[in-house]
Amino acid sequence: MSGSAPSSIRPLPPGLQKVAIEELNEVPSRVESDIAALKEWLQKQPHLCACHEDQFLLSFLRGSKFSLEKAKQKIDRFYSLQGVIPEIFNDQRLVDNDQVLEIIRLGVILRIPLDREDTGPAVTIIRAGSYDISKFKFQDIIRVGSMFGEIMMLEDDNASVSGYLEIMDMSGVTGANLFALQPQLLSKFSAYADEAMPTRQKGIHFINVPKAFETGFKSLLGWFPGFR
């Protein structure tokens, strides 16, 4: 077996490869066999209609610091928890869905491009007050956010290796936005992000928070562990 990753895996830039080796226990010469072990396990899990693509499985290995058992648990949770959040994981979750495209064009969720040599976490800005709550439900925004998250885990090596940061821009947020939140849905999705997604949240920062809501947002962070 060669010392390089299989050809179907994107090679990491040297800086990120160093991080993957030192912080995630990645051994480049073992990546191919680790992915093969996950594929073999998946073939014995008839209840999981799982993706077997190498890059997909590698993201779970990195998210589990190359513990095969933890990677298996995350993959299982990835699919089982989707089943208990039908408001998000449904037939509207398509890249050509008109509502999805409209939310994307509003710039509710923005990805910040990084230099290829940057080894830091991926950065996402969420503009919480940029959509019309009379037109879109909170679950519609979370649905698009979940799609961004999957694209990130499959295509963004910074997110896969170094995790991600979220910047929550609260410009324009009013009391109506707070009432439009769906706490039960947010709690379930937070559990999904924590327990099932292989990308690791490295922090969340609130900016432009209206003075009247500062105390409320601090409380919100305490209710949902995934948002700490």
UniProtKB/TrEMBL annotation:
Q: Per its UniProt entry, which superkingdom is the organism in?
A: Eukaryota
UniProt lists the gene as: Dyak\GE21128
- CDD domains in the cross-refs: SEC14 (cd00170)
* Protein source organism: Drosophila yakuba
Please report the name of this protein according to its UniProt entry: Uncharacterized protein, isoform B
SUPFAM superfamilies noted in UniProt: CRAL/TRIO domain, CRAL/TRIO N-terminal domain
Q: Which GO terms describe its cellular component?
A: membrane
InterPro entries assigned: cNMP-bd_dom, CRAL-TRIO_dom, CRAL-TRIO_dom_sf, CRAL/TRIO_N_dom, CRAL/TRIO_N_dom_sf
Q: What's one Pfam family the UniProt record gives for this protein?
A: CRAL_TRIO
In the record, what terms sit under GO molecular function? phosphatidylinositol bisphosphate binding
PROSITE patterns linked: CNMP_BINDING_3
Q: Which PANTHER family match?
A: ALPHA-TOCOPHEROL TRANSFER PROTEIN-RELATED (PTHR10174), CRAL-TRIO DOMAIN-CONTAINING PROTEIN-RELATED (PTHR10174:SF216)
Domain named Cyclic nucleotide-binding is located at: 114-156
